[in-house]
Amino acid sequence: MKNIFNHLHTEEILNRIDKLNPNSQPQWGRMDVAQMLAHCSSFQDIAMGNSFPPRGWLGRLIGRLIGRFVKPILYNDKPIPHNMSTIPTILITDKKEFDTEREKLKQKIIAFQNDGPEKCTTHPHPFFGKLSSEEWGKGIYKHLDHHLKQFGV
To answer: In 10 A of CB 94, how many CB atoms?
Structure first.
């Protein structure tokens, strides 16, 4: 499985982000391309320990009781299903500026990769609970891949 902490996988993601343009259209979902970039950037903030969305009761239940069964479903090479629910605090609905959001996301990905696994957050994921740095690295790659495929790159 690909991992954002691998330089080649990071370069692949950055190159795919560069193929987006303000007119890129989603193949599913409601976000436009600038909103998607802002959404991915907000998810980066969680993994970097810059944002701490609250864990709801469902997230606590999943994390404690069945997290060990759900994680293997997420941490594999199968695509994330379309139109999955997201963390409410990173659901982007307001208008965003494409160039600003693209650059912000690229810089966060580069910083996350450069900081390496040792600087990954230890704060629990709002839904999956405590994640290892390897799980964060794989999860970040898979999340970005999912949304880039959403926009055809």
So the answer is: 6
